[in-house]
Amino acid sequence: MKKSATIQKPLNSKGASIFKKMLEDKNAIHQHLQKGGKLADIKNKYRCVKPLSTSGS
Amino acid sequence: MLSPYPLQEADDFSCQFITDAGITYHVYFLDYSYMFADYPGLAEIVYSFNIDVIDGDAGLSAEDERIGLTVVEIFRIFFSRVENVAVYVCDSADERHLARKRKFDLWFWKYNDGTIIKEDGVAVVEDMEILNSLLVHRRNPHCAEIIFAFKDLNARSGEK
After folding, report:
1. pLDDT digits over B103-132, tens only?
2. Are strands B24-31 and A48-49 parallel, antiparallel or unpaired?
3. Which neighbouring-strand residues pair with B25?
4. In which residue ranges of chain B is pLDDT below 50?
5. How many whole angstroms separate alpha carbon A31 and alpha carbon B93?
6. Which 8-state DSSP code applies to residue B121?
7. Which of A29, A49, A27, A25 is nearest to A37 (CA)?
8. pLDDT value at position B111?
9. Nearest-Cα residue of chain B relative to residue A13
């Protein structure tokens, strides 16, 4: 029987889409900030939160 | 004795600090709570941590110890709530992701007092590898399950 040649593509990680999105968000926000934008402008698109206070803790 | 740089409010969602070399670092978190949505019982508060140079040449700050101290101070505040979980990815766009990972690793091993557990992962996404890390407080009640879920997300489909 003739064996068919198959190309083995590497399998993605189970959380591939999450980590990819994390990297894409980071790069998009970097571009935005570099242009002088504020996170407040895009807070809903990227689920911006502030889990820490710099006014003392 | 060296001290962290003062943290300033950049806006309602981020803070920043300016180094002695005049480099402005922007620090912000994004809500990634859905990250562990597929793991029953893990409705955790997960944030992606990001630090970005907004102004100046980061290459000038390679030896600036106060930057590491400032990042540690940010995490000290962040983990004052022990349920908080942070994940970060190392940007690979300029091929310097390994250098960034080494820098974070150095800060962690140098300044961590043992309260924070760090777990490293490499996510395979198509033909790209994304270096990523998890930070979780040792006293987080779901610490072991979170680490398990994180490792599982980095594992390849089909792997056990």
Report:
1. 889 888 888 888 999 999 999 888 888 999
2. antiparallel
3. B17, B53
4. none
5. 12
6. E
7. A29
8. 85
9. B156
Helix (H) / strand (E) element for A49: namely strand A48-49
B residues 40..69 contacting A (CB < 8 A): 45, 47-48, 50, 52, 54
ipTM of the complex, rounded to two decimals: 0.87
CB contact under 8 A, B48 and A53: no
Read off the pLDDT of residues A14-32 as tens digits, 9 standing for 90 and up: 999 999 999 999 999 999 9
What is residue B10's three-state secondary structure? strand
Quote the minimal CA–CA distance from A45 to chain B in Å: 10
Strands (E), chain B: 8-11, 14-18, 24-31, 45-55, 84-89, 116-125, 128-137
Using the structure block, give the residue that is written with the tokens 């006293």: B139
Q: At which residue do the structure tokens 């040449």 appear?
A: B57
Two structure tokens written together for B109 = 């091993």
Comparing C-alpha atoms, which of A10, A24, A23 is closest to residue B124?
A10
What are the φ and ψ backbone dihedral angles of B59, each rounded to 5 degrees? Answer: -60, -20
Q: Which residues of A touch B123 (CB under 8 A)?
A: 13, 15-16, 19-20
Three-state DSSP class for B6? coil
Hey, which residues does B132 pair with through a beta bridge? B89, B121
Q: What are the DSSP calls for B87-113, one per residue?
A: EEE---TTS-HHHHHHHHHHHHHHH--
